Structures are given as C-alpha cells and as structure tokens.
Amino acid sequence: MDSQKEALQRIITTLANKNEELHNFMETLSHSLAGVQVNSPQAVSDLEEEFDMLFTVLVEMKESMINRIKQEGAKKTQELQHQLTQSGSALESAVELLEFANNALDIKDEDEFTKAAKQIKDRVTMAPAFRLTMKPKATDNMNHLMADFNQERQLLQNLKFLPVPRAPEIEVGDCLVLDNTVSIAWKMPVEDSKIDHYILEYRKTDHEGLPRIKDERCWEVVDNIKTTEYSLSGLKFDSKFMNFRVRACNKAAAGEYSDPVTLETRAFNFGFDSSSSHLNLKVEDRSVEWDPQGGKGLESKVKGKENKGRSGTPSPKRTSTTRSPAIRGGRDRFTGESYTVLGDTSMDCGQHYWEVKALKDCKSYSVGVSYRNLGKFDQLGKTNTTWCIHINNWLQASFAAKHNNKAKNLDGTVPDRIGVFCDLDSGQLSFYNAETKQLIHTFKAKFSQPVVPAFMVWCGGLSLSTGMQVPSAVKSFQKTENGLGGSNSSLNSMAQ
After folding, report:
1. Model confidence, pTM
2. What sequence ranges are listed for the domain COS (predicted)?
C-alpha cells in the first residue's frame, strides 16, 4: 500500500510538472502569437516606408536629370541662335558688297574705277563674313545625356529582404559557473563570415527549465561581443538559476535568439536578523553598526540572576518592535554586553561561504557561527555552541580564534575582508583572507544542530557580502588540507 502511494505520488509530481511545463509553453505560444499580430503589420509598414523612400529618390533623380538636359538644350540653343544672328548680319553685308562690286565693273572712268576697287578691297578685308568662324559652337548631339538603367533595373528586380543571421547554438557543455563568474560559449550552425557581433542576454530566476514569459525579472543585455564566448564576472548569486540566450548580428540586422539555456547559480544568501540584534546595534539587510544611543529611554532594566556574574552593566529588557520576525523562529533579543546579531538563515548541510568587512576604525568585532539557541547574554566564542575569530583594536590589540571560552592567538595581520567557509558535511569552519584566499584558521567540529552566521560588533560596523559561491581556491585548499588530515586549530577538541 505504501509503495503504491509512493508510486502514485511520483506520478502526481510528474503530471504537475508536465502541467506547469505545458502552461508555460502555452504562454510562450500566446506571447509569440501576439507578437506576430503586432510585428506583421509593422513589417508591412516598414517595407512601404522603404519603397516610398526609394520612389522619392527616383523622382528626385529624374527631376535632376531632366533639368540637366533642359539646361544643356537651352545653352546650345542660345549659342547656335547667337551664331545664326551673326551669320545673318554678315550675309546681308556680303550681299550688299557683292552688288557694289558688280556695279563697279561697269565704271568707265579710270580714276573712279580705281577708287571703287580700293573701297571694295578695304570693305572685303573688314567684312564680317570673313571674320566669322564657320564652325557651329554647339552640336545637336545629346547622346552624352542619355541614360541606361539596365543594371539598376536588374538591381531593383533583385530586391530582397535583409539576410538575417541564423540563431546561434549555446554549447552547454562548455559553459562554466565558477567563483561567481558565468562563462557562456556558443557557435553558429553554419559558417557565416558576415556576422559583425553578438548580443548576449541574461536574467536571474528561481525557476528551473525553460525561461518563463511572465518571469518577474527583465533580461539584461551585453552588446557588441566580437567572439563566440563571454564571461560575466562579479555576479551576486541571489537566485537559484540564470537564463541565457544569444543572437547574431550582421551590418544589416539581428537574427533570431538561440534556444535559451538555464544554468544553476545557487549560493548562500542571508541577511542580518534584526529581531535578534542588541538594541545598541543598528541593523540593515547587509550591514550592522554600533549605535551607542540605541535603546536609550527604556527605564526597565534586567535585575537579579540574569546579571549575576556579569559586569553589572544594566541591560534593557526585550521590547516589542516592528521588525520582521526571524526566519528561524522567535527568540530573545541579545542584551547586556552581548552586542550580537545573528544571520536570518540557518544551515544544516552542505558548503557555504560569505564575506565580512569591518568598517573603518571598528574597535572590536567577531565573525563566526552559532547554534540557534544561543542565550541572550551569551557572547560569541565563550560558549561551546559558538565558534568565531575575534578582532580587538581597542587598548591592547588582539587577533584570536575563540570557542568554549578559550582562545588561540592568531599570527599575521587582520585582513580587510574576511571570508567564512562553513562545511557542515565534513564538520569544518574556516576563515580566510578574502583577497588572497590565505587560510587564517580552521575549526573542526561535529555540528549536532543547524548553525547560523553570527556577528558581534562594538564601536564600529560590519558590511556583509552574500550570494557567493565557495571560491575555487578555497575548495582546492580544503581538498589538500583534508587529504593531509591536518588542521591548524588547537581548539578542535573543544568543538562539541
């Protein structure tokens, strides 16, 4: 009966997943259908606009060329008309001179004849007919303004839509997610020498499988990629997955998108649990700062046993606030000299990594992990349920690893940023220089309960970086360290 129920439950899960997949596919089809109904008329409008522009160019060229012919004809007409007028005047003068010469032949008087002959000779020398060029200044040939548009006509007859590149293919096997960097590789299905560049689009999502049309996050774009690979570095992995797609572009148009791929980008994300923080701590989602004015004006103080054996500093009672309740459940706010705040997300298995940076001139702070049931007066490193490194820059400087009220002084300088690596499966808590990935200290412990990130700060502040993968350098070091079977911690035996 139980096995049948389990089998039926698996079938139900499969059917539910298939229904969700079909629903997403139908949304994709509906989105594509709506896109076709919008894009088809737009394509017609764009084509009409292109032809209108082409017609406009042809009309303008026609008018320009016709004007050129008219100007050439007017110029030739003017030149030939001028020559014709000059020739007519010369002809009239020549006819008159010819008649005068013929009449001179009939003169009998020798002196009169000599005088007339000399006059005719002089007139012939100066006659316009003999000074005119007998070559037309223009011809009637207009062949130099003829047009042959056979080649252009063929080009027009060969008008086609733009050659659009084919969709690239993302090579999932060559894609890599490492050190908060995602490297994407793709190829073209066929060689295309006309491709100018590629466009990569990506978005974060918490849904596995094909991208959803109605995803809550927008696509982000990386343009003008000249190669068939690209790396997105410095990412914060605050989602379980990321979708990727690529399109190729030539000088004319962008092609279709590649089939999208989804890559897993899980990482440990958490913030400060403001409901647990000491009243002297001002807590934001990714930062905590000491606030000496915090909680002032509260007249009620904790008395009796709660303060016995402690410094005697009055500690305000827990009061109601408007801050969101902790994800891990309700608990008392830290008070007294426990200037502590916990993370809002617990860890019960796996490997996790986050980084902490102290603000300038921070006098004292601790970074580590704790069980969730840490008492409200308990201080990090002073119980057997907390593990931390403590930095003190006030009066006498110290740098130490603390657990169960015992401390081990640490060598070296305090890094600007501390990386925390928690491996619950192998029972390790390690601290690193976040910049150089140099190991600072390692605790060995069999964690019997889920743990949460824990922080103490006094006279200063801390900033928190989450959504980070375990760095590859840390993984490599841990493999080497575990292979050697050693640890640099002298507090291992105290981890309970």
Report:
1. 0.65
2. 105-162
